[in-house]
Write a structure and sequence with these properties.
heterodimer; A: about 300 residues; alpha/beta; Rossmann fold; 2 domains; six-stranded mixed β-sheet; 11 helices; about 45% helix; elongated; B: about 625 residues; Immunoglobulin-like; eight-stranded mixed β-sheet; five-stranded mixed β-sheet; 19 helices; 30 strands
């Protein structure tokens, strides 16, 4: 195994861990440990100004070097960037239940949401959760409180895949209720009307929020590796299609490729970060994408 | 449609296998609960009906391929109509010289028409003399057969019943029927060979055409020193006065009248013939067979088939008793005019012209063969003469090599003491070809001593059992030399007392004399290819030049002795019921002509290929 591969955990391995908290912590702590060599270190707390010491100030903030040079007491003032509020939008529609390699798209997405929540909470960013299928299923408002992470993880743990997908409608609903500008992270397989989805995401931009889209797909959905005549049953609608994979593979791959290209092209053009995630990829890839977006916002 | 190997049709039962497998392995499709089914909906998704049809197509292709394979191995064919029809009547009509009299031929035609008219089923017409020709192949059209009969003409060949019956029997090919031979029942139409086989299901019938009551024929024309002798044969019972005219090179040279007794022969001699090349004798016989009323003979070179035997003393009774009597006994010698002996020493005193009168020179001894005699012999061969050399105890290899010239290094070495036999190496050589199936009789000869002969330009046409050359044929310019690697006088071998000696010597002399550029005479029955089978003077291209040859009818055809029909049937051997095997052969030939199996195999391969394509799309 290459050293690079050892840095990240296999999603299937993470999925076998006990609680969602443990999963999130395992992912994030391992990820943070790897970031010591990354360009993202030290962005969370910034130096702001020197201020003359006032009795009562914490002596640990006293700058003794300045005192030595000027014989005056100054304390270092830091500005904490905790004014970022992130809303995790998690797709729990029936299509997210598909998984071919020990982990479903839903499990992968929930673990990703938990990891992001853990990471945000650790950075003292406010994080909230909206779970939706064709409607909003669960809402957890954004908060920076220390115990909020636990609420988030419990909410994620209670979620289960629902019925049909209608991504656009919940997006518009959430966008209309946003009171603070912040970051919106959508985790979905986006197997819906692309026009409606893109319009919904642009709605967030209109409301002043930055948007990061994690497009979660299974490897089967990307490669269509089936080799014998198969009756495909839709996870949401129950529709059935009998197909000879050899005959339809080219068409399917063209369609899924066009869908991905369209999201990547149109969302990129709208300034929305788009990240395609294969459920066989480590979650750390998603965290890197998040941090990249977060650093730009900072 | 019929099948050559119908048992292979059982292989078609294998077609059940894919059907059973299809039924056993029929199952519902593999099911997958999938998220992106919407992306498949407008794909060229196979509908269940299409899929079912494709599966049935796949099954049909597999079954078809197996059935086609079974059919191909069963070797199918369409049975030809001729093979499936019933009885066949073959009319074999004698068109030999003896049937050439107008009355004979008219009778033969009439008999043949009657047979055709009475025939039930198909009819075929065969004409025959020394060989047989299928004039009308089996046909249901009696008018076609009758037309073939009307168009036939008699030729100059001699009668050969064996050829006629063999050719006619071949036409039956497993069918039953009748073989009707329309002939004058000439007694010498059967040769001395084995009997001819006719299938048991074929009834043989003879339609007898009565022979001519009287006929005069010129059966021989020979040169005897300065005389030309014509032999007239009377086939009638009454003594007849025969008027014979002799032409030399187209000019009448003499007339003679001879009395010929009933069933007897008489010679008409013409003297004072001093010059000329070709003599033609004609007997006046308006009522007999026209084709045997004349005969041709070479005058130039005196006797083209005469043989000069060179021995130590020149006394043939002493030095070459066997050779002399064998040559006299042989038909070719009879036609030639005798055998002449000369001592090797005396040959030196001869002139080239005198030597050139002989068609063949047999050298049995080289003792006393002086330089001048060698030059004579060398010139003789160089001018196209034929030389027979018996490499016996009296022949010196160096002398013979001198005779044959420096271009033909000949080596005759000492004798072996091992008893050896002889076997022809080339049975198609003219010397051995005439032996036919009796060529094995040559192997009965025991050679106690042999010479080792090797020479360039010589082909070993027979070898001893020691693999040494026994008989060599050497091409010396336009001439030929045949070398026997032993003696011919019962000293080194017992060849002269064997039955094969006379025909061997006769055929050798015929071969050597026919190779002579001075001229050759043929019977109509055995003319070389390209020469018309009719009496007359012809020019033959030998490759190294041209030479004239004369063609006469076979004198045996003028022998009108008849046989009884019962004797005719006695020569026919009834084959055991070969109709089944004949039919099988016929069917096999039909099948091999049609080779339908190849198309079926190709179709099976196409079906298998299509099966592969459909299977790949149905997997």
């Amino acid at each position: 195994m290459a050293a690079r591969d050892r840095q990240f955990l296999d999603p299937a391995v993470v999925a076998r861990l006990g609680t969602l908290e443990l999963k999130a912590r395992t992912v994030v702590e391992g990820f943070i440990a790897g970031l010591h060599r990354s360009p993202f270190k030290g962005f969370s707390v910034e130096f702001a100004e020197y201020r003359q010491y006032i009795p009562g100030d914490d002596l640990s903030t006293m700058d003794w070097k300045v005192y030595a040079r000027s014989d005056r007491h100054y304390v270092k003032k830091f500005e904490e960037e905790t004014n970022l509020h992130c809303q995790l939008l998690l797709d729990v529609s029936g299509s997210m239940a598909y998984g071919s390699r020990g982990v479903s798209k839903f499990e992968y997405a929930a673990c990703l949401a938990a990891s992001l929540g853990y990471l945000m909470n650790r950075q003292r960013d406010g994080v909230g959760l909206v779970a939706f299928s064709d409607r909003i299923v669960d809402v957890l408002p954004s908060s920076t409180r220390a115990g909020h992470l636990r609420n988030l993880l419990v909410a994620l743990d209670r979620l289960d895949v629902g019925s049909r997908t209608n991504v656009a409608k919940p997006l518009h609903q959430v966008a209309d209720t946003l009171t603070k500008r912040g970051l919106v992270v959508l985790i979905s397989d986006l197997l819906d009307d692309a026009d409606a989805v893109i319009r919904g995401l642009k709605h967030f931009q209109y409301r002043g929020s930055d948007v990061l889209v994690f497009h979660v797909l299974d490897r089967d959905e990307l490669e269509f590796p089936f080799d014998r005549t198969t009756r495909f049953e839709d996870l949401e609608s129950g529709d059935e299609v009998v197909a000879v994979p050899g005959a339809v593979r080219e068409h399917y791959l063209k369609r899924i490729g066009a869908l991905i290209d369209r999201y990547r092209r149109e969302l990129g053009a709208a300034g929305i970060d788009y990240q395609l995630l294969d459920t066989s990829q480590p979650l750390e890839m998603a965290l890197l994408a998040y941090l990249s977006t977060r650093s730009r916002m900072a | 449609m019929s099948f050559l190997s119908p048992l292979f049709l059982a292989g078609a039962a294998a077609a059940v296998v894919p059907i059973v497998l299809h039924l056993l392995r029929r199952r519902t499709e593999h099911r997958v609960r999938f998220a992106a089914v919407a992306l498949l909906k407008d794909a060229p998704v196979e509908q269940s009906m299409q899929r079912r049809l494709r599966q049935w197509l796949l099954l049909a292709l597999r079954v078809t391929a197996l059935v086609l394979l079974a059919l191909a191995f069963a070797r199918p064919f369409f049975r030809a109509a001729s093979a499936s029809r019933g009885r066949l009547t073959v009319v074999a009509i004698d068109t030999s010289l003896s049937m050439s009299a107008p009355a004979q031929l008219a009778q033969a035609r009439q008999r043949a028409r009657e047979v055709i008219r009475a025939a039930a089923g198909d009819v075929a017409v065969v004409t025959f003399s020394d060989s047989a020709t299928v004039v009308v192949s089996p046909t249901s059209s009696q008018s076609t057969a009758t037309s073939g009969v009307d168009a036939m003409t008699a030729g100059f060949g001699s009668t050969n019943y064996r050829a006629a019956l063999a050719a006619a029997a071949d036409l039956f090919r497993g069918r039953s029927g009748k073989l009707v031979v329309v002939t004058d029942l000439q007694a010498n139409g059967w040769d001395s060979g084995a009997r001819v086989g006719v299938p048991a299901g074929v009834q043989v019938e003879v339609q007898d055409v009565p022979a001519l009551p009287e006929n005069l024929a010129l059966t021989d024309l020979r040169v005897d020193h300065d005389r030309v002798v014509a032999t007239v044969t009377n086939a009638g019972a009454q003594m007849t006065e025969a008027r014979v005219t002799l032409d030399v090179d187209g000019r009448t040279s003499g007339r003679a009248v001879v009395q010929v007794g009933g069933h007897a022969s008489a010679d008409a001699a013409f003297g004072g013939i001093q010059s000329g090349a070709i003599a033609r004798a004609v007997v006046d016989d308006p009522r007999g067979i026209p084709g045997d009323n004349s005969r041709l003979a070479f005058l130039a070179g005196a006797s083209p088939a005469s043989v000069l035997v060179v021995t130590t003393s020149g006394d043939l009774d002493k030095d070459a008793w066997y050779v002399r009597h064998a040559l006299i006994a042989a038909a070719s010698s009879q036609k030639a005019g005798g055998v002449t002996g000369v001592s090797a020493a005396e040959l030196g005193t001869w002139t080239d012209d005198r030597l050139s009168r002989f068609a063949v020179v047999a050298v049995l001894s080289s003792r006393g063969l002086e330089r001048r005699a060698r030059e004579h012999l060398a010139g003789y061969v160089a001018s196209g003469g034929g030389l027979l050399i018996a490499a016996g105890p009296d022949v010196d290899g160096e002398v013979i090599a001198d005779v044959l010239g420096t271009g033909s290094p000949l080596e005759i070495k000492g004798a072996d003491s091992e008893t050896l036999a002889l076997a022809p190496a080339d049975v198609r050589h003219p010397i051995f070809r005439a032996f036919g199936g009796d060529v094995a009789s040559l192997s009965l000869v025991r050679f106690r001593n042999t010479a080792r002969v090797s020479a360039a330009n010589c082909q070993a046409i027979a070898r001893f059992t020691s693999a040494e050359a026994a008989v060599l044929d050497c091409a010396i310019g336009p001439g030929h030399a045949v070398i026997v690697a032993s003696d011919l006088n019962n000293r080194w071998n017992d060849f002269p007392i064997r039955a094969s000696f006379v025909p061997f010597l006769d055929q050798t002399v015929r071969y050597l004399s026919n190779n002579s550029t001075r001229g050759a005479d043929y019977l109509v029955d055995d003319v070389p290819s390209g020469v018309p089978a009719a009496p007359g003077v012809v020019t033959i291209d030998t490759g190294s030049g041209q030479r004239r040859a004369i063609v006469n009818v076979n004198p045996k055809e003028s022998d009108l002795d008849r046989m009884l029909a019962a004797d005719f049937y006695a020569f026919i051997e009834r084959l055991r019921d070969s109709s089944a095997s004949d039919a099988r052969i016929e069917l096999s030939e039909q099948e091999s002509r049609q080779h339908l199996w190849q198309y079926l195999l190709a179709a099976a391969l196409v079906a298998l290929f299509a099966e592969g394509v459909v299977a790949a799309r149905t997997a």
